[in-house]
Amino acid sequence: MNQYNSLSILLSLTLVIFLWQNSSCRSSNANVGNNTAMNAHSASNSNQSRDVRGMWGCMHISMEVTDAGAEIDYDCAHGRITEKIVPDGNGNFSVKGVHVKERPGPVREGEDNERPASYRGTIHDGTMTLTVTLTEKNETVGTFTLTHGKGGRVFKCK
Question: φ and ψ at 123, to 5 degrees?
Answer without folding.
Answer: -125, 125
